[in-house]
Amino acid sequence: MSELILDGEQTIYQVRDTYLQLKSIMNESKGLSLSLPQIQECDCAFVQLLLWVKQEAERQQQPLHFLQPPAALVELVSLLGLSDVLFAPNQEMLNG
């Protein structure tokens, strides 16, 4: 399983580069852990990217873990009504 540490800003301006990293990792690995606690700013474009990576992991039948999502991301996902999709209680979202 591969781990990718995301930090700083994850907005529309960085999503393309992050997408390319994720696409490469998804094609080469047998699962992915996204380490998220160092993200300082995110927007809806980043949430769309998380939805894509989740869908891609399911399509490839690979495990996916969101590690320590920051409160701002959890709140944004909640405001968009996507908590059950991305951070459902039965999904693995590791907080430590």
UniProtKB/TrEMBL annotation:
Please provide an example of a Pfam family that matches this protein in its UniProt record: STAS_2
Lineage of the native species?
Bacteria, Pseudomonadati, Pseudomonadota, Betaproteobacteria, Neisseriales
Name recorded for this polypeptide:
STAS domain-containing protein
Gene3D superfamilies, from UniProt?
A: STAS domain
Q: Report the SUPFAM superfamilies cross-referenced here.
A: SpoIIaa-like
Cite the MlaB-like STAS domain residue spans from the record. Answer: 6-82
Which InterPro entries does this chain map to? MlaB-like_STAS, MlaB_ABC_Transporter, STAS_dom_sf
